[in-house]
């Protein structure tokens, strides 16, 4: 099995275990055809890129993290990218706390996506 196939299977496995909710923000995620997701949730398809399901490495690959089940969770593209673009990458627990606080105050995802958090 190729490395990308293994990672895709881990991503889908964790997304299913998480009920297709991001590990950090708990918003719904999509995989495959975003137009179906958009129709199901009455949203514009072109604006949903941030909610694409990604495989998030709890210990980043650049720090020796591997593509192993215990090191992977499913996270929306926005949370995944934001965590790894920080000057100092927070631990998964610290980043999750940061995201949840900002989500509660409406300062993480745009307001029009609020229904994806319920």
Keywords, please?
single chain; 118 residues; 2 strands; 8% strand
Descriptive report:
By secondary structure, the chain is mostly helical. It has four helices and two strands, in the order ααββαα. A two-stranded antiparallel ribbon has the order 1-2. The longest helix has 15 residues. The chain is globular, with a radius of gyration of 14 Å. The chain starts with a helix and ends in a 14-residue tail after the last helix.
Structural class label: mainly alpha
Unreliable segments of 5+ consecutive residues: none
- What's the helix count? 4
| Helix amount | 25-40%
Shape, per Cα inertia axes: globular
* Average pLDDT: 93
The Cα radius of gyration reads: 14 Å
The biggest sheet, with number of strands, parallel, antiparallel or mixed sense and barrel status, is:
2 strands, antiparallel
Produce the secondary structure layout.
Layout: H1 3-17, H2 34-40, E1 53-57, E2 72-76, H3 77-85, H4 92-104
Antiparallel strand pairs: 1-2
Describe the structure concisely.
The chain is 37% helix and 8% strand. By secondary structure, it is mainly α. The protein has a two-stranded antiparallel sheet with strand order 1-2.
């Amino acid at each position: 099995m190729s490395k990308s196939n293994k990672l895709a299977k881990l991503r889908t496995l964790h997304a299913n275990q998480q009920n297709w909710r991001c590990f950090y923000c708990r918003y719904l995620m999509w995989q495959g055809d975003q137009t179906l997701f958009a129709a199901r949730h009455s949203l514009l398809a072109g604006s949903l890129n941030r909610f694409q399901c990604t495989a998030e490495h709890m210990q980043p690959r650049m720090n020796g993290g591997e593509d192993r089940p215990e090191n992977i969770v499913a996270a929306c593209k926005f949370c995944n990218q934001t965590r790894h673009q920080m000057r100092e990458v927070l631990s998964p627990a610290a980043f999750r706390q940061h995201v949840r606080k900002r989500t509660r105050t409406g300062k993480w995802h745009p307001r029009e996506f609020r229904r994806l958090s319920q």
